Amino acid sequence: MAPVFVGVWGGVDLIRDPYSDAASGGLRLTALTTADVTVARPAQLELVTGLELAAA
Predict the structure, then answer these.
(1) pLDDT digit string (tens) for 3-29?
(2) How far apart are CA 22 and CA 16, in angstroms?
(3) Is residue 19 part of a domain?
């Protein structure tokens, strides 16, 4: 079982903006999607600090 789950809802919305970069002849595209992220077992994602490694 993965420690992180991502749920994507619906499709990808593609927004076309012909005005922002119009002076240079460009076209700006923006892609938006809705996603939920949750951590199933947060203990697996804890940051371990204070470790001293011996030189080999």
Answers:
(1) 788 898 888 899 998 888 878 888 888
(2) 12
(3) yes
